[in-house]
């Protein structure tokens, strides 16, 4: 097992990475305020892993409640969030009750937001069950739900007490979901570590074959990079915005098609190609470098061409992006492979990007 620590001015917490960690409830015990927890999961994950986690905690004298939510990005709503509050109130849960998010990014985001809001703040723990949530969304304290006009627009910064990333849970992950997670893994190389791009090119076959050692190394590298960035900029006023590479375009794809039509990682992959094309048009990347990114995404089983939403729809959805400042859309671009920047795009460059070969016609 590998343990990383994310340290912030007001708190710190461990990120446990390894195999067969879910039954090891003793890892979670030091992070419980009281011996009472509520596990929040979904209809896909519950039959696979809920009882293992419940039994482990109960063997240590922990009282365990649970609530199972519908699965999918299209359920990341106020209505679903209220099911968590309903369960907490019905069971008279106090401020010492710890919420445990057992699921992917949707569950993690909603449980974190519920924890930030219930009685103005209760503790929570992340137990991510997808690659995407293990390498990205479970770490850093971003919590939110979606609004029809924009993704993750309603939420809070609220840090977990611990993150438990068990590689064994990825055994049941469908291939499409694994590829979606690899989009976020690739993102870390493109934005901040050129050597990681080399490593991913060499190890993509092993990653897609779910080699546990290689997966753990990918999770470690991504979490270490994210922990470093978040420790410098917890509330995304500066460097943390770089973690949104591909997301301004990607979130527009998700909202434009309807949440849940494309997986988040799929939209981010296509969004990274648009960011790469914009970077090329500005003279930052060469055609060969754009091709290298495209080949890596293809090797991961990811789309590189975006649906054609039409410029008006693209601009409408991107205008709701959280990086918008004084009405101007800001994008994360690649000044070179392994080095990202936040910049605005001239209107002509943005239009050329949205009408490039990376948008379906």
What report would you give on this structure?
By secondary structure, the chain is an alpha/beta fold. The chain is 44% helix and 19% strand. It contains 12 helices and 11 strands. A 4-stranded parallel β-sheet has the order 4-3-5-6, sandwiched between helices. It has a 3-stranded mixed β-sheet with strand order 1-2-9, covered by helices on one side. Strands 7-8 form a two-stranded antiparallel ribbon. β3, α1 and β4 (63-69) form a beta-alpha-beta unit. The longest helix has 21 residues, at 212-232. It is globular, with a radius of gyration of 20 Å. 49% of the residues are buried.
What's the arrangement of secondary structure elements?
Elements: E1 2-7, E2 12-18, E3 36-42, H1 46-58, E4 63-69, H2 78-90, E5 98-103, H3 105-117, E6 124-128, H4 131-137, E7 142-147, E8 150-157, E9 163-166, H5 175-192, H6 194-208, H7 212-232, H8 247-257, H9 264-281, H10 287-299, H11 311-318, E10 331-336, E11 339-343, H12 347-354
Parallel strand pairs: 2-9, 3-4, 3-5, 5-6
Antiparallel strand pairs: 1-2, 7-8, 10-11
Helix pairs in contact: 4-5, 4-7, 5-6, 5-9, 6-7, 8-9, 8-11, 9-10, 9-12
List its salient traits.
alpha/beta, 12 helices, 361 residues, globular, three-stranded mixed sheet, four-stranded parallel sheet
- Overall 3D form: globular
Order of helices and strands: EEEHEHEHEHEEEHHHHHHHEEH
Largest sheet: 4 strands, parallel
Please state how the strands of the largest beta sheet are arranged side by side. 4-3-5-6
């Amino acid at each position: 097992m590998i343990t990383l620590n994310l340290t912030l001015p007001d708190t710190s917490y461990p990120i446990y990475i390894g195999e067969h960690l879910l039954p090891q409830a003793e890892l979670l015990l030091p992070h419980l305020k009281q011996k009472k927890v509520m596990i929040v999961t979904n209809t896909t994950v519950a039959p696979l892993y809920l009882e293992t986690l419940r039994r482990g905690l109960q063997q240590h004298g922990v009282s365990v409640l649970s609530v199972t939510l519908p699965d999918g990005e299209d359920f990341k709503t106020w209505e679903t969030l209220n099911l968590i509050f309903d369960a907490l109130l019905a069971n008279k849960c106090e401020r010492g009750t710890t919420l445990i998010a057992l699921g992917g990014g949707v569950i993690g985001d909603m449980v974190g937001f519920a924890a930030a809001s219930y009685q103005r703040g209760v503790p929570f723990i992340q137990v991510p069950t997808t690659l995407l949530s293990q390498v990205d969304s479970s770490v850093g304290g971003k919590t939110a739900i979606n609004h029809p006009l924009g993704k993750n627009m309603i939420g809070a910064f609220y840090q977990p007490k611990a993150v438990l990333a068990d590689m064994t849970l990825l055994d049941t992950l469908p291939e499409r979901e694994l590829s979606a997670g690899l989009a976020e893994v690739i993102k870390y190389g493109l934005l901040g570590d050129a050597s990681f791009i080399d490593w991913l090119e060499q190890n993509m076959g092993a990653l897609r074959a779910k080699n546990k050692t290689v997966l753990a190394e990918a999770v470690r590298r991504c979490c270490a990079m994210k922990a470093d960035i978040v420790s410098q900029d917890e509330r995304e006023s500066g460097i943390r915005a770089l973690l949104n590479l591909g997301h301004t375009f990607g979130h527009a794809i998700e909202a434009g098609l309807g949440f849940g039509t494309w997986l988040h990682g799929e939209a981010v992959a296509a969004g990274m190609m648009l960011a790469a094309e914009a970077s090329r048009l500005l003279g930052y990347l060469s055609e060969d470098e754009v091709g290298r990114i495209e080949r890596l995404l293809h090797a991961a089983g990811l789309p590189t061409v975006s649906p054609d939403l039409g410029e008006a729809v693209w601009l409408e959805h991107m205008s709701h992006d959280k990086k918008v400042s004084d009405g101007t859309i800001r994008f994360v671009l690649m000044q070179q492979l392994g080095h990202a920047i936040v910049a605005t795009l001239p209107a002509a460059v943005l239009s050329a990007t949205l009408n490039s070969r990376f948008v379906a016609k």
